[in-house]
Amino acid sequence: MFLDYFALGLLIFVALVIFYGIIVIHDIPYEIAKERDHPHQDAIHVSGWVSLFTLHAIWPFLWIWATLWRKDRGWGFAKLAEEQHDIHHRVDTLIDQVAALQQEVAQLKQPTTQTNSTPKQQTTSNNSTDAQNQEVK
To answer: For residue 70, which phi and psi values (nearest 5 degrees)?
Structure first.
């Protein structure tokens, strides 16, 4: 008789610990958000409860959402914007350099085409002169 009550008490205790444990685990993202003074604390907290009903499918995303914000740097996009500005500046510089190189290549090709066309014209004129000389003979 005593063991029956002991088993029932142990079963209730284990069920309560598991139930409370699940609630505590699902509040971890909210605790992180609260500690970091996240601007979306309430949304993360409510989403943690919703996660209980979605079979924990969104809980990892809540963890990520809570850890993205830090009080000292915010979302961290300011540095990203600076890096993008630097990259755009470098790309503009490279575009200017490529344009300058294309102009140089065009200038270098011009005399080459003129020199190449001159011997061909001379060869053609030499061939016609040779043909005229053969007719005369």
So the answer is: -135, 140
